[in-house]
Amino acid sequence: MHIKTYNILNENGDVLNTILADEGFIQQHYPNANYIERVELDLPVPKIVSKTTFRFKFTTAEYSALLLAAKTDVEVQTWVETFNLYTEINLDDPYVIESVNMMVNKNIIAPHRKDVILSMDGIAPIGTP
Known about the structure:
Blueprint: E1 4-9, E2 15-21, H1 23-29, E3 34-37, E4 48-50, H2 51-55, H3 60-70, H4 74-83, E5 88-90, H5 94-105, H6 113-117
Antiparallel strand pairs: 1-2, 1-3, 4-5
């Protein structure tokens, strides 16, 4: 017996009910009904973290270097000011990736830290149980 999710449809194709059952149960209990197997999509979970979580992905030394650089480098200052506007950070956002690359290029963070900062290792994305 293989349990699947089925949508029971009316004559217009609208979903009347969704049930978990094996195909034999469907055929026995809904012999004249239209039904379709509901395919569950395995969509990627967005890599969205809180601003606080993102901040603490940087070591104290890295974040201190970032703030120090912001005092003399307008590009870094712009990033810090923009970062302060956010409440959530999407780690897949091209701006975020470009910003972390900028930090590597300016020697604020080491190259190997980029992948750590942009990863979800040990973090539950916002909106997941």
